[in-house]
C-alpha cells in the first residue's frame, strides 16, 4: 500500500500510513517510500525516511546512495557531495 501511494505521488499519506502501522515497519516499507520521494522530488520526507532506515540498518550504504541521488536530482550538489564523502569515510572506517 505504501508503494502504491508513493507511486501515485501521495507521499504524505504513505508516511502517515507507515506511522500508523500497529507493528514496526521493516526496511522494505521505508525503501518504497524513499524511492517514491526520489521520483517525486520530496526531500523533506526523504530525509526523515533515510534517518529511519539508517537506524534500522546503519551499515547499509545504499540508503546513503539513494538519499545522495535525491539531493542531486533536486540540484543540491553540495549536499550530494557531502553525502558521498561521508559514505566513503564510513567505508574506510568499517
Automatic annotation (TrEMBL):
Annotated GO MF terms: RNA binding
Coiled coil: none
One annotated GO biological process: RNA modification
Protein name listed in UniProt: Pentacotripeptide-repeat region of PRORP domain-containing protein
Annotated organism of origin: Oryza rufipogon
